[in-house]
Amino acid sequence: MNPLCDHCQLKYDRDAGYFLGSIYINYGLTSLIVAIGYPLLFFGFGVAPRALLLAGMAFCVLFPLWFFRYARSLWIGFDQFFDPSQEEQPASDHDG
Fold first, then answer.
1. Rounded Cα gap, residues 15 and 21, in angstroms
2. Dihedral (CA of 56, 61, 62, 65) sign
3. 92 lies in a domain?
4. pLDDT band at 96 (very low <50, low <70, confident <90, very high)
5. For 41, which DSSP code?
6. Is residue 39 part of a domain?
7. Domain that holds residue 58
8. How many domains does the chain have?
9. In angstroms, rounded to a whole number, what is the distance separating the alpha carbons of residues 24 and 27?
10. Whole-number Å distance between alpha carbons of 53 and 45
11. Which of 36, 39, 71, 86: disulfide with 25, CB 3.0–4.6 Å?
């Protein structure tokens, strides 16, 4: 991971544990997709339970690995939206 943003110089390398919130995003989206997809495929399209179980297990392993970097990006975006970095604030022109 890059230490800084090339465009705005935002520091990506934060304190230990900063990106724990991205785990919630990753887990939440994976759970939501499985919770919606499994009943939809089972009841709506009649896919066999064994095939759904195997596909669901594969999805629950592969999707979070692929989505990892996007979850981190979303976490940084949420953090900057709700608590903007003070490093980016322009300096005051007051002399005294």
1. 13
2. positive
3. no
4. very low
5. I
6. yes
7. 21-83
8. 1
9. 5
10. 15
11. 71
Asked whether residue 89 is domain-assigned, the answer is no
pLDDT attached to residue 6: 85
| CA 76 – CA 82 distance, rounded (Å) | 10
Residue 65, both tokens: 């690995």
Count of CA atoms in the C-beta half-sphere (13 A) of 14: 14
Name the residue type at position 94: H
CA distance 9 to 13: 11
What is the DSSP annotation of 2-39? -SB-TTT--B---STTTTHHHHHHHHHHHHHHHHHHHH
Structure tokens at 40: 């939809």
Instruction: Name the region of 9 (left: φ>0; alpha: ψ -120 to 50; beta: rest).
Output: left
Structure token digits, residue 21: 């919130």
Instruction: Tell me how long the chain is.
Output: 96
Tens-digit pLDDT profile for residues 29-65: 999 999 999 999 999 999 999 999 999 999 999 999 9
